């Protein structure tokens, strides 16, 4: 039986088909049984739980052709359990596999995607650079130079999720011949490739983010994504994954609300549960309002995607709105738990920290605001 989430007051889950509900139940069962019990430990040690990869593979959902509503709900469930593992899955299935599916030739898709679906090969996505995040479209500095039947890549990438252990890293570089951004699939053993783990993070600590250095890195022409001809093709991938981050933000909100509600019912002060106090109920209702509004936006976004009526501003507004509301919810939940909210024992501290990363990646609030602003005014505010 499909169990409704505590925070789904408007029963958005009822919009899932029975078949999709079965997939969600399977994913939720795996996450609650295998991921949640170890999430805090791996987060505290900043180590990746490699034994869980087989469980993700057994779910059979990586790169699957689901409806956008189901894909979004899967992202929600993963972030509700652990935003780090949601990021791991999103990078692999959304960014890396999405790049190959969107920009790769039929031969490249056949060569890589089947083994990525089974997690035999894990993917990463290398776009962001040490000096280029929001301005990476125009300011991308990593270069690609063709030399016969190979390409020579030079440059640096930063914040590359899965970058320390991924088998296939989709690297975006600017072709020195035509000044256009192109995509390349790079392997850990390519000559001139080096990845170093980023240490001392305060968010998504389980994610193995890497600094990547490409020094005369050799990539065969066969590993250049054949249909990635400019940054417009890169943007096609980002448009899809940005909506996934909006769903992840809802998952983080849901987790925070559920933690706070449970705590409010159990924690006693002045001789009774704090959930019976007006100010505590006010916090809970504000949280639930944010969850419901953000969930409704994501559901409608998925419907537009499934109907083929999806535009850049739709995902940009969803990402900007949901992550902003998420920040409020995790803050209110931490406030409700008081001192207990800053220790991992009560889980909420991890969600508070991880929310900061979701707020920034896949386009900051400011960048997504300008995408929406350009759409509604017809005027670009980009420099």
TrEMBL record:
InterPro entries from the UniProt entry: ACX4-like, Acyl-CoA_DH_CS, Acyl-CoA_Oxase/DH_mid-dom, Acyl-CoA_Oxase/DH_mid-dom_sf, AcylCo_DH-like_C, AcylCo_DH/oxidase_C, AcylCoA_DH/ox_N, AcylCoA_DH/ox_N_sf
Alphabetized GO MF terms: acyl-CoA dehydrogenase activity; flavin adenine dinucleotide binding
SUPFAM superfamilies in the record: Acyl-CoA dehydrogenase C-terminal domain-like, Acyl-CoA dehydrogenase NM domain-like
GO biological process: fatty acid beta-oxidation
Residue ranges occupied by any Acyl-CoA oxidase/dehydrogenase middle domain in the UniProt entry: 124-216
Sequence ranges assigned to domain Acyl-CoA dehydrogenase/oxidase C-terminal in this UniProt record: 235-376
Top-level taxonomic group: Bacteria
Key words of the record: FAD, Flavoprotein, Oxidoreductase
Cofactor section: FAD
Domain Acyl-CoA dehydrogenase/oxidase N-terminal: 17-118
Family per record: Belongs to the acyl-CoA dehydrogenase family.
Descriptive protein name: Acyl-CoA dehydrogenase
């Amino acid at each position: 039986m499909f169990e409704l989430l505590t925070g789904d007051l408007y029963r958005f889950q009822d919009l899932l088909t029975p078949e999709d509900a079965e997939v969600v139940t399977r994913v939720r069962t795996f996450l609650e049984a295998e991921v949640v019990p170890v999430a805090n430990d791996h987060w505290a040690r900043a180590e990746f739980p490699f034994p869980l990869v087989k469980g993700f593979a057994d779910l059979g959902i990586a790169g699957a052709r689901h409806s956008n509503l189901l894909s979004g709900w899967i992202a929600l469930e993963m972030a509700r359990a652990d935003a780090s593992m949601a990021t791991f899955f999103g990078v692999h299935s959304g960014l890396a596999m999405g790049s190959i599916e969107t920009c790769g030739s039929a031969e490249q898709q056949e060569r890589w995607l089947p083994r990525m679906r089974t997690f035999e090969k894990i993917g990463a996505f290398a776009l962001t650079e040490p000096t280029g995040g929001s301005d990476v479209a125009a300011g991308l500095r990593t270069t690609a130079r063709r030399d016969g039947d190979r390409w020579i890549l030079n440059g640096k990438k930063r914040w590359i999720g899965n970058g320390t252990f991924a088998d296939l890293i989709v690297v975006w570089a600017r072709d020195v011949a035509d000044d256009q951004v192109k995509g390349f699939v790079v392997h850990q053993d390519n000559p001139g490739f080096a990845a170093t783990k980023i240490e001392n993070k305060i968010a998504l600590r389980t994610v193995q983010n890497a600094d990547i250095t490409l020094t005369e890195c050799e990539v065969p022409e066969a590993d250049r994504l054949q249909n990635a001809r400019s940054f417009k093709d890169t943007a096609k991938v980002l448009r899809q994954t940005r909506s996934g981050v909006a769903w992840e933000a809802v998952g983080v909100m849901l987790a925070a609300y559920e933690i706070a509600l449970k705590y409010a019912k159990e924690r006693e002060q002045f001789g009774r549960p704090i959930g019976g106090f007006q100010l505590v109920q006010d916090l809970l209702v504000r949280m639930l309002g944010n969850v419901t509004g953000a969930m409704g936006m994501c559901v409608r976004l998925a419907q537009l995607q499934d109907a083929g009526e999806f535009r850049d501003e739709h995902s940009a507004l969803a990402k900007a709105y949901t992550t902003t509301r998420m920040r409020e919810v995790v803050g209110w939940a931490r406030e409700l738990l008081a001192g207990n909210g800053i220790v991992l024992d009560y889980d909420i501290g991890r969600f508070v920290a991880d929310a900061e990363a979701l707020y920034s990646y896949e386009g900051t609030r400011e960048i997504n605001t300008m995408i929406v602003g350009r759409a509604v005014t017809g005027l670009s505010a980009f420099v």
